[in-house]
Structure formats: structure tokens, C-alpha cells
Amino acid sequence: MMGPMSRPAASSGRTGRPPLTSRAEILEAARRLIGRDGWETLTIRRLAAELGIGPTTLYRHIKDKEDLLVLLLNDHLDRLERPALPADPRDRIVAAATAMHDVLADWPWAAEVLAVDGFIARLDESALWMVEAILSGASERGCTPDQGIELFRDLWYYTVGEILVRSRSARVVTEEERRTFVRRFDASRTPHLAAVGDRWGTVAGRDTYPAALRTFVDGLLAQAAAPAGD
Amino acid sequence: MMGPMSRPAASSGRTGRPPLTSRAEILEAARRLIGRDGWETLTIRRLAAELGIGPTTLYRHIKDKEDLLVLLLNDHLDRLERPALPADPRDRIVAAATAMHDVLADWPWAAEVLAVDGFIARLDESALWMVEAILSGASERGCTPDQGIELFRDLWYYTVGEILVRSRSARVVTEEERRTFVRRFDASRTPHLAAVGDRWGTVAGRDTYPAALRTFVDGLLAQAAAPAGD
DNA sequence: TCGACTTTGCGAACATGTTCCGAACGCGTT
DNA sequence: AACGCGTTCGGAACATGTTCGCAAAGTCGA
Question: What average pLDDT does range A99-125 have in this prediction?
Fold first, then answer.
């Protein structure tokens, strides 16, 4: 039932060929490689070469590359210090969500991991304080447990979307492309889009996450407190 | 400046070897393949085989696979009829955002496309009415053009996040995994998470998009109307 | 010592997206 | 007819993630 992929364990009471590589060594080599050449160049074969082992041997220690990235993120989260949280429940929710956002936004390859299956469930306890903080804040503001979960999920969706879309829009837009984009707006069919015109690129670059987050939190808390409504 | 990748064009006044395949044929074959075997099996080689051409020839007509998916989505959007929009600006915003959401949620491989670079800019005019509807609603509610863009972006983030996370969480969770997940919650460190326990899976399955969307829209509109505030 | 048994290491191989480069092909000019 | 030109076609090849099957290397019990 234990299957493979367990930790290397002390050599006591262990059967089978002793491992030459540990998961910790793999993560260390991956961090080294990323730090040296950038995370885009992190491939299974290069990582194996860095470790001096065969590429397929890695699969004895990690499930797949996605798993490796999740492990790396957890490893990163473990190294961060947990900030003090505001006493006010609403501010605590905002602070926790902002912390989630900022950590991921600073993690350049977060976008590769954010959408993996069951992401939240694969986080270490060192990251779950953010979830806990949001649930506790919701609870103190009178939310039921179910409403707390829903609040977290809605904030999570917004946060993930923000990071994902932004990280993929980082490419520089050429003047030619910009012109083509603007020209496509037919003022008769999409007048507002045409009127907005070339302000899109400018405004799209702004960081509205903090303001919108507060708005969303306040709205969701009010909605949870109210019995019903459209 | 025109470069390759243009339409096959009528044979008049055209130099060079005449194309055997058109982009329209490629999209048609892709739809056929997806309808027959599911979109997971759509590969460049299979698509080329379906068309009876060499795999690399496809790259004369599409930029890459991502481009093909965007083309397929635009093709899909073109076939949808544009619903009547409510006269009330707030309801119009909600209706347009919901339409965006529903179209993408019904498009099983939307998640593969949603995060591509400059996604919105690559949409056909047949899809831009949704953007236009949101901008017009915002305008009628007194938003400046910049605020309209920001409103759209915040709704877009939330929508993208919802669809992306949900589509990747569709996998069935085994009893074993669920047990492991719940057991990890240490009641002393994360009491609310522990208290929530196994309700997470149940609540996470609920569709809270419509309610949270309305909340978000109302909050953002109110924030835009107010001069300032935390 | 000897044979299960168990776990790790790894080379071969496969599917996939994609690039390269030469061949094929039709047009216009000489 | 012959040649250059511009374009498309497509096979070879490459990098990548990953699976498969087998060899290697320990432990445990006879």
C-alpha cells in the first residue's frame, strides 16, 4: 500500500537496493539549475545530468514533472516566514489572500503549477495557514463553515486568474500588433471598445489586485451575512 | 509584410506553388477528429493524417498548436448566436460575463487556451460583443473608460480562474486520497481547516459562480462610483 | 551460502510539438 | 524552352516527458 515514492528513509529495516539519490538532493539540484540558467531550461534530462544520474531514474523519486514543480513550490513556501496577521477578521482575510497572491506572483513559474490537479490539497502545512486565516476570518464574521469554504474558493479563483493571465501577458507587444488590435474595433458595432482604443494596453498593465480584492471580500462577507438576495 | 499564413486566396495573381490545403479544411478536419475521438487525441500528426498531408505541412497554415486551438475557439464562437442583452446596465454586465463563462465552461479544452498569450486580443469580433457589453454597462453606471477596462479585467480574472481550477479538479478523488487529505489537518494549528474537514470536497463541488459574480459586479460598480475608500 | 524478495538505476524506445532544408510546382520573363 | 522566383509540401531530425523491461544491489529467511 505504501508504494514507491516514499522518502529514502534510514537504512535500518529497509529492504531493496539502497537509493543513491534522495528527493532532497533532487530539489536542491533543481533550485541550483534554476538559479543558474533560469527555470525555462529545467528539463528532466538536464536535471538528471546535474545530479549525475540517468534521466529515468528521477521517476523513482518524483511522480512526474508537475509533481516536481509542486514540490519545489512547497519547498519555497517552507522557507518563507509567516507574517503576523491582523486581528480584524476582514483585514486578516485580505492579508492572507494578498500573501498568497504575492508569493505566487513572485514565483515566475507559478503559472505552470497553479492549475495542476488538486493544487490546494497538495500544499504543505506551511502554506495552509493562509487558508486557515481566511476560514478563521470568515468564521469570526459570522460565516458558516460552508460559506467560509466558498469565500476561500472565490478569492482563490480570482487570485489564480489574475496571476495566470498576467504571467502570460508579459510579452512585449509590438507597435504593429497594437495597431492591428486597435484597428479591428468597428466603432459602429463596438463603440465603447473603439472609444477605449489604445488605452487598453495602458490600463491592462495596472495592478488592481489589492483594490478589487478588498471589494470582493467585503461583498462576499456581506452576502454571507444577508439571508438571501440577488 | 504579409508573410505566410494568409488565406489560400484565389489563384489569380498569385505566385508560388498553389496550396493543397486551406485553413478552413484544417479546422474542419480538427472538428471532425475531436467529435469522433475526443479532443485529447488531437495531435498534429493525427490531424495531418486525417487531412492526408505531412505533419509539418500544417505549419504552413497555422502558427503552432496553440494557434490552432484559438482558431477553433473563434470558429466555435462564430457559430453561437448572440443572446439578447438586458437593458439594465448591471444586469447586462452580469449577463455578458455569464455568457463568457458558460461558453468556456462548455468547451472542454478551453483550459488549454484560456491562458495563452494575449487571449482577448486574439478573439474574433463575434466574441467581442461580450467585452463591449461589459464596457457599455460600466459606462452607463458612470464608470470612466479606464474603470470599465478595470472592471472587465477583474471579472475576466475571476472567470478564468474559476474555469481553469474547476476543469483541473474534475478528476475523481479516491477514498484513500480524501482520507489522507483530511488527516493532514492538525486541529491545534489549523482548527478551522480541521473543523471543516471532509466538507471541503462537497462544498468545492458547488457552483457559486453566478452568486459571486453578482457580488463582485456590484462591489466593483460601487467602488468605481465612490471617490475613494479602503 | 544460497535463493526469494524488494527497491533502485538506467538504457531503449515511444509519442509529441516543432524546426530545417531540400524538393515540387506554378507563374512570369527572357 | 529555359530559367529564376515565390510559395507550398514533407521527410529527417531534434528536444522533451514518459513508460518498459531488465540489471544491480541490498535485506531476510532457509
Answer: 92
CA distance, residue B51 to nearest chain A CA (Å): 31
pLDDT tens digits, one per residue of B199-209: 888 898 899 99
pTM here?
Answer: 0.92
Report chain B residues whose CB lies below 8 A from the CB of A145. Answer: 192, 195-196, 199
Which residue has its C-alpha nearest to nucleotide D12's C1'?
A: B56
- Grid look-up 529497509 returns A14
C-alpha cell at B91: 444586469
Q: Which of A30, A45, A119 is nearest to A76 (CA)?
A: A30
**Among residues B196, B175, B185, B182, which one has the least CA distance to residue A150?**
B196
CA distance A76 to A30: 12
- Residue pair B63/B23 in contact (Cβ under 8 Å)? The answer is no
Separation of first and last alpha carbons in chain A: 49
Would you state the torsion angle of the CA atoms of residues B154, B156, B158, B163, taken in this order, to the nearest 10 degrees?
-170
Q: Please check whether residue A58 is in contact with residue A67, taking contact to mean a CB–CB distance below 8 angstroms.
A: no
Output Rg (C-alpha) for chain B, integer angstroms.
23
Q: Give the tens place of pLDDT for each residue, B65-92.
A: 999 999 999 999 999 999 999 999 999 9
C-alpha distances (whole Å) from B206 to each of A122, B46, B200 are: 21, 37, 10
Amino acid identity, residue A162? E
Evaluated on CA atoms B2, B7, B9, B15, the torsion sign reads positive
Alpha-carbon span B164 to B35, nearest angstrom: 22
Tell which B residues from 134 to 193 touch A, by Cβ distance under 8 Å.
Answer: 135-136, 139, 145-146, 148-150, 153-154, 156-162, 164-165, 168-169, 171, 173, 177, 181, 184-186, 189-193
- Residue B16 is predicted with a pLDDT of 86
DSSP string, A170-189: -SPPPHHHHHHHHHT--TTT
Q: How far is CA B143 from CA A211, B139, B214, in A?
A: 16, 5, 17
Contact B158 A156 (CB under 8 A): no
Q: Helices (DSSP H) in B15-144: which residue ranges?
A: 23-37, 44-51, 65-79, 89-106, 111-114, 125-140
Question: CA at B32, C1' at D25: how many angstroms apart?
Answer: 53
Return the C-alpha cell found at B81. 448566436
CA proximity to B214, closest of B143, B158, B148, B149: B158
Cell 533532487 locates to: A26
Distance between terminal CA atoms of chain B?
50
Strand D contacts in B 59-118 (CB under 7 A): 60-61
Closest CA relative to residue B220, chosen from B119, B142, B114: B142
